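Hi R.,

As promised on Friday, here is the backbone we talked about, encoded as structure tokens. Could you run it through your design pipeline when you get a chance and send me back a sequence?
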């Protein structure tokens, strides 16, 4: 074997290998993000500033906050998703907002509390947890929650992931409730450089995975960041979509992935 033959064989092997690499292995061609702003309803000024943000930023309202009903109606009129920001018990025992669900509730008490909170807000299309580092790790209570949400289908659930031990989204998937989870917290630190880093991280994850979800709060610094960065998303190849849009996108991606790795009927018979 001369040197030309020795060089040709590995090149031929590499080219053949490329034929078996899935088309989507290089990364998704479309990247979408959703942004949820929590703790809405406490003040009118910040709420109105959120509603004025460009694009379908989702608004998650505390069920019994002073201005939640008024702002939820305004958000819906502006084309924003209205979400119930459901207070849940946390491991550190912090004081709970009105309407909270707790570990010591019976199943009936739990379901009644969730139903009352849903009834307190108009136009609710989704739910996410406020705190909840204790409750979201309990499969039984999460099952009660998802069974209640099933009665309001097609309402969706977003796991805010306030603990790594959460089982909330897993239970949502098992019960057929449309769901996704938070990938980035925008504003754990309110320094503008830190906010920009978190926003950049959101875009990086979206490009890598095809979609990503961020949660922030109506702090002046967070709103200033979004007012500055959201208008430029299209130029960066990112589309801001409602949370329901991200869930639909992720479901399609999962179905495509499953189809690409499932044998055909003919192959299975062979």
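Update: got your reply. Pasting your designed sequence below so it's all in one thread:
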């Amino acid at each position: 074997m001369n040197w030309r033959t020795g060089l040709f064989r590995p090149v031929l092997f590499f080219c053949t290998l490329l034929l078996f690499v899935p088309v989507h292995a290089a990364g998704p061609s479309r990247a979408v993000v959703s942004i949820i702003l929590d703790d809405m309803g406490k003040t009118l000024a910040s709420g109105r500033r959120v509603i004025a943000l460009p694009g379908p930023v989702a608004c998650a309202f505390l069920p019994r906050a002073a201005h939640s009903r008024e702002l939820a109606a305004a958000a819906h009129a502006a084309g924003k998703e209205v979400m119930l920001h459901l207070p849940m018990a946390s491991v550190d025992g912090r004081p709970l907002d009105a309407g909270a669900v707790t570990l010591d509730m019976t199943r009936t008490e739990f379901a009644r509390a969730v139903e009352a909170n849903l009834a307190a807000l108009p136009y609710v299309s989704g739910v996410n947890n406020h705190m909840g580092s204790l409750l979201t790790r309990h499969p039984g209570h999460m099952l009660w929650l998802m069974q209640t949400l099933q009665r309001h289908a097609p309402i969706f659930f977003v796991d805010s992931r306030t603990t790594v031990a959460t089982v909330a989204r897993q239970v949502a998937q098992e019960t057929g409730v449309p769901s996704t989870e938070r990938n980035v917290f925008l504003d754990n630190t309110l320094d503008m450089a830190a906010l920009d880093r978190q926003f950049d991280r959101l875009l990086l994850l979206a490009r890598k995975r095809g979609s990503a979800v961020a949660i922030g709060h109506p702090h002046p610094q967070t709103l200033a960041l979004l007012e500055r960065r959201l208008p430029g998303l299209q130029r960066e190849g990112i589309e801001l979509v409602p949370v329901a849009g991200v869930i639909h996108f992720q479901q399609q991606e999962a179905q495509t992935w499953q189809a690409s790795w499932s044998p055909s009927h003919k192959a299975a018979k062979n």
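One thing I noticed while checking it: The beta strands are 31-40, 58-61, 82-88, 124-131, 156-159, 179-181, 184-185, 211-216, 238-240.

Thanks again,
M.
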